[in-house]
Amino acid sequence: MRKLGCLVAAILAALLAGSLLLGAMLGEATVEEDTAFVIRTGSSLTSVANQLEEQGLISSADGFLLHAKLFGSGDPIQAGEFALTANMSQADILRAFQSGDVIRRFITIPEGMPSVLVHERLMSEELLTGEIDVPAEGSVLPDTYDFERGENRQAVLGRMQSAMTAYLTEAWAQRGDNIAVITPEEAVILASVVEKETGKPSERRMVAGLYSNRLKIGMRLQADPTIIYPITKGRPLGRRIRRSEIDAVNDYNTYSMAGLPKGPITNPGRESIAAALNPAKTSALFMVADGSGGHAFAETNSEHEANVAKWRRFRSENGI
Q1: 3-state class of 54 per DSSP?
Q2: Model confidence over 111-164: pLDDT tens digits?
Q3: Are residues 113 and 264 in contact, defined by beta-carbon separation less than 8 angstroms?
Q4: CA-based end-to-end distance of the chain
Q5: Are the beta carbons of 70 and 14 closer than 8 angstroms?
Q6: How far apart are the C-alpha atoms of 142 and 165, rounded to whole Å?
Q7: In angstroms, what CA-CA distances link 147 with 35, 123, 152, 160, 307?
Q8: Which residues neighbour 198 within 8 Å (Cβ) at sequence distance 6 or greater?
Q9: DSSP 152
């Protein structure tokens, strides 16, 4: 019995020694605080292990590689930016790299942002790479988009434009029977005018209905934003519109021509596109600001003149 006990003790001691030796060979993770770790495209597991050791996130690159060989799933590691959290194990780190659970960052394009400003926003995002041209006006769907550190700007812009194409296809299929546009492209143009004409979401369909009425009878839209667009490409004008600009003849100014501008004057959002394709059923042909951020609508010129007089009084009383 004594011999058997000694044998068991020897075996346990050997197992313990082997375990300690294996543990020493495998090393351990040493992530002390939340850390963003970037794996470049084309990186090997060996280079990543060395990078982890250099940054003090594991105790041994060789140990990490041995751990991956013995216990890893065999799946390739993914490129991207990963969030390593305090007290993660080597198994946790390897699993994150293999699953591609990367940090997603976000960039927002507000409704009505013109393409020159979309370009500026993408170019100013320091975590993106590469150059892009100013996208075609009306080609970007305003929304919040995610991206990875180091992603190419053209890829992000491509998703924004694909989103517009997809939404426009969906919205066109659900268009109403009282619309004044005959193509999806015309819908985007009208929607861009609606987007710039009202800051009140509840008015979009009404404004779209009014402009649709004007288009149907060949009446000029007389939309102020179409005067401004050729001057600033959608940036704020920063002053009142001049008489000479109202009278200017070009392919955008709807004071000097009937019909739609030759192209969009901004990137309209979903709601403005939906309004252009499902406008309110109204007889209104005129509108003027009412001092609340919205508009007063009228069916006749005499009603409109009365609304204009109210607006002028409001401006005078409020020093606008």
Answers
A1: helix
A2: 999 999 999 999 999 999 999 999 999 999 999 999 988 899 999 999 999 999
A3: no
A4: 104
A5: no
A6: 12
A7: 18, 14, 9, 11, 48
A8: 204, 207, 294, 295
A9: B
CA distance 93 to 68: 10
Among the listed residues 263, 281, 244, the one whose alpha carbon sits nearest the alpha carbon of residue 188:
263
pLDDT value at 197 more than 70: yes
To the nearest whole number, what is the mean pLDDT of the chain? Answer: 88
Alpha-carbon distance 59 to 31, whole Å? 10
What does the CA dihedral 96, 100, 103, 108 come to, rounded to 10 degrees? -160
Among 98-107, 154-163, 169-178, 197-206, the range scoring the smallest mean pLDDT is 98-107
User: What amino acid is encoded at 129 in this protein?
Assistant: T
Structure tokens at 94: 């390897």
Q: How would you classify residue 42: left for phi > 0, otherwise alpha for psi between -120 and 50, otherwise beta?
A: left
> Which uninterrupted H or E stretch holds 289?
strand 286-289
Bridge partners for 152 per DSSP? 129
Contacts of residue 145, defined as CB under 8 A and 6 or more positions apart, other chains included, come to 106, 107, 108, 109, 156, 159, 160, 163
Check: CB of residue 144 under 8 Å from CB of residue 107.
yes
Rounded CA-CA distance 206/279 in Å is 6
Contact 145, 160 (CB under 8 A): yes
**CA 73 to mean position of chain CA atoms:** 35
Is-contact 295 288, C-beta < 8 A?
Answer: yes
| Tokens encoding 164 | 């517009």
DSSP-based three-state secondary structure for 144: strand
